[in-house]
Amino acid sequence: xxxxxxxxxxxxxxxxxxxxxxxxxxxxxxxxxxxxxxxxxxxxxxxxxxxxxxxxxxxxxxxxxxxxxxxxxxxxxxxxxxxxxxxxxxxxxxxxxxxxxxxxxxxxxxxxxxxxxxxxxxxxxxxxxxxxxxxxxxxxxxxxxxxxxxxxxxxxxxxxxxxxxxxxxxxxxxxxxxxxxxxxxxxxxxxxxxxxxxxxxxx
Length: 203
Prior knowledge:
Blueprint: E1 8-10, E2 16-18, E3 28-29, E4 32-33, H1 48-52, H2 58-75, H3 83-90, H4 107-116, H5 127-131, H6 143-197
Antiparallel strand pairs: 1-2, 3-4
Helix pairs in contact: 2-4
């Protein structure tokens, strides 16, 4: 119930692994599906039926989260923004899904995402339907291509991290200089008040 990029890992063979099962629950038993009434997950990845408290199938909420993750991987953006307008949009419809990005994608990709992020969970794509979808069965990178892709992606991430660290250092230096300036002024003011409180000496 908490699928997101931070909980997805690759091993050295690029096999996908899922981590962090802190919110995992059993949603099916011998009697059938178990309704999930607890509101949990990470905003931005939570299916609309979770917000409304009407979860009848745990698989559909994971399909929704996977749709959000796939959208992010392809566009580097959240499909609905993040927390600010996510709740409002998911309680209405998903027609504005492609209005938040200026990128263009294949019809197959848009069709797959639309089916995974269907507002009505009963209309949402199943795992089997996803596996049979044309986009899912399209061309993929070989291991060498994956290494090259993730290598270039790591360079981009490292560059952003370096830029952020540099900006943080500059901001910290500015804050330190500002604090020192305030401290100096405060000391001068305190000294002035102290001297003014002393009785005048007559010569």
